[in-house]
Design brief:
single chain, Ribose 5-phosphate Isomerase B, Chain: A, globular, alpha/beta
């Protein structure tokens, strides 16, 4: 499993700590940013999203101040299903029902909580139920029609 991690300047600290905690368990790629100097989160969201789209990564982790902006930007990339997560119930729902491939977090989440959310995200399988496959197929079809 290959995972990408990215953040804007506000998410830099959590991204760096989370990367350090995960690198012994996963093949994880740091896609920036590289410090706390102000940057634009869409640049990093698109970089991560494109790697997911190109199937160079299996999953992604994206962090910004609230987790909202970066999730919106990630979802602009075809094939990305990014979800802002605040609790374990969100993780289960988005992985089982939506087959999300990017978890988006707020920089306000503690390292331990972020680690637990990410680990659960990576280890929760998609249900593969017909109704969920049908709904995801509609999203994919819409994306392709709008290109």
């Amino acid at each position: 499993m290959k995972i990408g991690i990215t953040a804007d300047h506000r998410g830099y600290k959590l991204k760096t700590e989370l990367y350090e905690k995960l690198k012994s368990e996963y093949d994880i790629v740091d896609l920036g940013c590289k410090n706390t100097e102000s940057v634009d989160y869409p640049d990093y969201a698109f970089k991560l999203g494109e790697k997911i789209k190109e199937k160079k990564l299996d999953f992604g982790i994206a962090i910004c101040g609230s987790g909202i902006g970066i999730s919106i930007a990630c979802n602009k990339v075809e094939g990305v299903r990014a979800a802002r997560i605040v609790c374990l119930d969100d993780v289960y729902e988005t992985r089982k029902d939506n087959n999300a491939n990017i978890i988006c977090l707020s920089e306000k989440v503690s390292l331990e909580d972020a680690y637990q959310l990410v680990k659960t995200f990576l280890n929760t399988p998609f249900s593969n139920e017909e109704r969920h496959n049908r709904r995801i197929a509609k999203i994919i079809e819409y994306e392709r029609e709008k290109r």
